[in-house]
Write a structure and sequence with these properties.
The chain has 348 residues and is of the alpha/beta class. It folds into two domains: 3-115, Enolase-like, N-terminal domain (Enolase-like, domain 1), CATH 3.30.390.10; 119-345, Enolase-like C-terminal domain (TIM Barrel, Alpha-Beta Barrel), CATH 3.20.20.120. The chain has helices at 57-74, 80-90, 95-113, 117-120, 140-152, 167-177, 193-205, 220-229, 246-249, 260-263, 266-278, 292-299; strands at residues 3-20, 23-37, 42-47, 133-135, 157-161, 182-186, 208-212, 234-236, 255-259, 282-286, 307-308, 321-322, 344-345. The protein has an eight-stranded parallel β-sheet with strand order 4-5-6-7-8-9-10-11. Helix 1 (57-74) packs across helix 3 and helix 2 (80-90) packs antiparallel against helix 3.
């Protein structure tokens, strides 16, 4: 069997500037991978690299030729474990680049069998949790308006970015605009341990569900300090990058937050979920700001999750790819009878 692989960089404008404690983003640089078999069937994947984890669109483009050569050498899209091993041998780091290839190969393999990827894995789509919709940092009134608009659009779960000297004011504004919404907050490493514990108390009074990454990942003992004293459950994101991090965070948080762009492959994402379960943790899958070329693949994991934060494509002004329906936050895996991940070029 022969496979032909190509890739292209795409610059995707955001609907609104998106700000977290580390900075502001107005566009997302993604790299789209397409792997075609000899019959003309094509698998699609996407990389959404993060400079925080040492990757850019340029580094993805630099390593993709070697990664795609490895796929072509294996030649069989169903040899998923062999391909993953080859990719890791060729490029040890660059998880977003490897993930894009992994997604494309999985998409192609499932398409060749004529089934959605979650069906190939034997998962029940009816058990998928709702995805949250993220409200980035902004002026207080603008945050209030965004929260009201998200609720009006039907999203029942909101994730609020914090990490400012106006955190209490921002949460109060959101709670006033969305009194019945389920709220989660993400500090993106911006708080000290004692600050995080203090803030957890008044966040609990406002019916927040949990706090994501309250302290820097470089302070594991600070994370333990917060976990042991917080009034709310703690989710680890920047502290949970790869599978090997799971044992280290097991006594420092309640929820492991994986992202495909951190794990390096769909197979590794499933291993991380299993490891987190084995350590008694709940599991969330988050995302970067990404096209449906990759979000659709993450959505296929949803039945394995307790929480989902897969709104990356919803924050884009336009996306060349359609994906899994996220109507009013519901991950509707069964809505479209699409083999593979469900990602499709809108022009096709």
């Amino acid at each position: 069997m022969s496979l032909d692989a190509t890739f292209e960089r795409v610059s995707l404008p955001l609907e609104n500037p998106f700000t977290i404690a580390r900075g502001t983003q107005t566009e997302a640089e993604n790299v789209i991978v397409r792997i075609e078999d000899e019959g003309g069937m094509t698998g699609v994947g996407g990389a959404a690299p993060s400079a925080h984890y040492g990757e850019t669109a340029a580094t993805v483009e630099a390593v993709l030729p070697d990664l795609l050569d490895a796929v072509e050498r294996v030649g069989d899209p169903h040899a998923l474990h062999e391909i993953e091993a080859e990719l890791a041998t060729v490029v040890g780091d660059n998880p977003a680049a490897r993930t894009a290839v992994s997604i494309a190969v999985h998409d192609l393999a499932a398409k060749r069998l004529g089934v959605p990827l979650h069906r190939l894995w034997g998962l029940d789509p009816s058990t998928a949790p709702a995805t949250s919709y993220t409200i980035g940092l902004d002026e207080t009134e603008r945050v209030r308006e965004k929260a009201a608009a998200a609720v009006e659009a039907g999203y029942p779960v909101l994730k609020i970015k914090l990490g400012t000297d106006r955190d209490r004011e921002l949460i109060d504004a959101v709670r006033e605009a969305a009194p019945d919404a389920r709220l989660r907050v993400d500090a993106n490493e911006a708080w000290t341990p004692r600050e995080a514990v203090e803030k957890s108390a008044w966040l609990a009074d406002r019916d927040v569900e949990f706090v994501e990454q309250p302290v820097p990942a470089e302070d594991p003992e600070g994370l333990r300090f917060v976990y042991e004293r917080s009034a709310l459950p703690i989710a680890a994101d920047e502290s949970c990058v790869t599978l090997s991090d799971v044992p280290a965070i097991a006594d420092r948080c309640d929820i492991a937050n994986l992202k495909l762009m951190k794990t390096g492959s769909l197979l590794e994402a499933r291993r991380l979920i299993a490891a987190a379960r084995a350590h008694g943790l709940e599991v969330m899958c988050g995302c970067m700001i990404e096209s449906n070329a990759s979000i659709a693949a993450a959505a296929q994991l949803a039945p394995l999750l307790d929480y989902a934060d897969l709104d990356g494509s919803l924050l884009l002004a336009e996306d060349p790819y359609d994906g899994v329906a996220l109507t009013e936050g519901e991950i509707r895996l069964g809505d479209r009878d699409r083999a593979g991940t469900g990602a499709r070029l809108r022009s096709e």
